Amino acid sequence: MSQHSLEGSGLRIYAILYLLFLYAPIALLPIFAFNSGTIIAFPLQGFTTDWFSQMWANATLRRALTNSLIIAVSSSVLATCLGIFAARASTRFNFPGKGGMMGFIMLPMVLPEIIVAMSLLVVLLGSGLKLSILTVIVGHTLICMPYGIAILSTAFSSLDKSLEEAAYDLGETKWSAFRLVTLPLVMPGIISSLLISFTISLDEFIIAFFLAGSEPTLPTYIFSQLRFPKQIPMIMALGTVLVALSIVLLAVGEYFRRRGLARIGGKDSGGFL
């Protein structure tokens, strides 16, 4: 067997082991979610959907889910709107201190979240604000915005400037050219930013734990229930639903990514799927 074949086989085995390590725990979620036993172990005892029924009947869980959805939708919209302004400015204009400003805006992407959470907690309490869903939205917007900017900067950078110039030559104002020409072309990037921000906010734990006060969110609720073994199967059912939701969001994001590539005539390099 040649050296090239040995290297190819080794890489293939590594890839398979890596994928098993990454996705095997996720694959166990639906298996135990439909298991009638309360102990998370093999062999399985039987098939049941009772854990899903208990999940939907749990008032505290519904409240936590509602809070998380409100936070995730609000944070993703705010982060994407602010990201559009920042990405537009960074890709179309040159101004003093642009590099430093963009560096500070992107800083939450690399800072430890516990540092960001503690800093926000001190600032918010020092300002006399009561911890609530609103304070979590502020924190999640700060965390999600760098990811939105990274996606939107790519979308704005790949846009041909001559299209905007042609709109100006035809008598359009800067606002109408942005609304009628630029915005539709970068819409796949906007949708991708909304989806990634929504996903990050929905499963973010540290900032929600510090800033939510007495209001439960989905991650903090799940964390609180892990202390009770009898609640674990219901958490498995909840995890199964969240995985299914993530797959749907991934499919939607891939659809709009390919639609955007087709619109601008770009080359598909693989994307998400």
TrEMBL record:
Statement: the UniProt record of this protein carries the keyword Membrane: yes
UniProt cross-references to InterPro entries, sorted A to Z: Bact_Polyamine_Transport, MetI-like, MetI-like_sf
GO biological process, one term: transmembrane transport
Residue spans crossing the bilayer: 12-44, 64-87, 99-125, 131-159, 180-212, 232-253
One Gene Ontology CC term in the entry: plasma membrane
ABC transmembrane type-1 domain residues: 65-253
Localization in the cell: Cell membrane
Keyword Transmembrane helix: yes
Membrane topology term: Multi-pass membrane protein
Keyword annotations: Cell membrane, Membrane, Transmembrane, Transmembrane helix, Transport
One Pfam family named in its UniProt record: BPD_transp_1
Record family assignment: Belongs to the binding-protein-dependent transport system permease family. CysTW subfamily.
Record's protein name: Spermidine/putrescine transport system permease protein
Gene source species: Paracoccus seriniphilus
